[in-house]
Amino acid sequence: MHLPRAKYGGQKMLLKLYYHPFASYCHKVLIALYENGTAFEGMFVNPGEPEQRAAFQKVWPLAKMPVLQDEARGRTIVESSPMIHYLDHHYPGPAPLIPADPDVLVEVQIMDRLFDNYLATPLTKIVTDNFRPEGKADPQGVEEARALIASVYPILDERLAHGGWSVGHDFSLADCAAAPALFYANTAVPFAQHRNVASYYERLLARPSFARVVEEARPYRHLFPLPWPESYA
Length: 233
What we know:
Layout: E1 5-8, E2 15-19, H1 24-35, E3 40-44, H2 50-57, E4 67-70, E5 75-78, H3 80-90, H4 102-129, H5 139-159, H6 173-188, H7 195-206, H8 208-217
């Protein structure tokens, strides 16, 4: 079984990204690739298709997306944050996403973890609970996930008070994480009352790399079990 492919960029493809265009962590890596115009071959994975899932498991047995393969260097990279570090080091472009200053890098990594661990991960819990078999739902777990998301918004609101990107005035790894995390978290726990978060999200939406990801994911919105905010029309 061969996974469907799509080429992004004109030169010979050295990089393959196994992804789904509606998956949050795939969005994170796509934003990084689009920021720098990095050429790659998109390997579309539908985990609901047994043959595609089996083919993907040969690449990464856990079958978790995204996965980046670098044919030139013989490397397979898993997990979105290490993937962006790898791209920034081996395939640098005009927009570095990993700060050279170690103190700034620590702050970027903190924000990256806040967005991934306290927005994206609990949101996944809320979403996947909708697909549990009858009688297997976990309402307490869902409420705990909603509470965790709500608890991190004030922290983000304070950290984003400077009005720039996640850390200072340079777009970084943390912003790649923030865009999809906020996009999806807002469907379950709206952040409109947190003005700094809301205005930061508007800046993210205006960023061409994220705008492209949002548009490419639009045909798959019907798969999402939560109601979309009116502003997402």
